[in-house]
Amino acid sequence: MAYAVPPALALIGLDLRHTQARLEQVEDWHHMGDAGELGFSTGWSNSSGTVGQPDAAAYLKTNSGLVVVKGRVQKTVSGAQFDLDPIFLLRSGYGTKGNRRFYVNATTGGSPNGAPRRVQVSGYTVYYELGSAIDALVNVDIDISFIAEA
Q1: Can you give the CATH number for the domain in which 38 is found?
Q2: How many domains does the chain have?
């Protein structure tokens, strides 16, 4: 089950997951595409202006086994696609057994208003659940956490 930030805390920008992860953090963030790290799947990248910034795609695992995945990623989607589209892979030891689905915010075509969409973690792969016929740039804000099982 996905963690939801309580509305009162969201209003002031406080997300306890990241606070807890920082307190327990035993490793640095693994930034997608950095030297020695895994890269993005075909067509996906950090959203414009996020490379090297706090919004760049990254993940870590705490000593309690909590995996935190964050970042703003983008891809241009063409035509009708109703499938799982892999965004990136996680390192061995950071995955799930089975599928875990999370609601995230996504925008298409430069629209300033996001819509809830789903990201799925299955094994070591983070997927975006496509579900509409579009020809547009998709931006996805990933902010999820789960206990590593694989």
Answers
A1: 2.60.40.1830
A2: 1
| Closest residue by Cα to residue 73 from 121, 143, 136, 141 | 141
What b/e string do you get for 127-144 counting C-beta neighbours within 10 Å, with b at 16 or more?
A: bbbbeeebeebbbbbbbb
Domain membership of residue 78 as a residue range: 7-147
pLDDT tens by residue, 63-101: 888 899 999 898 876 655 557 889 999 999 999 998 999
**Both tokens of residue 33?**
């595409």
With pLDDT > 90 as the criterion, what percentage of the chain qualifies?
Answer: 26
C-alpha span between 58 and 39 (Å, rounded): 11
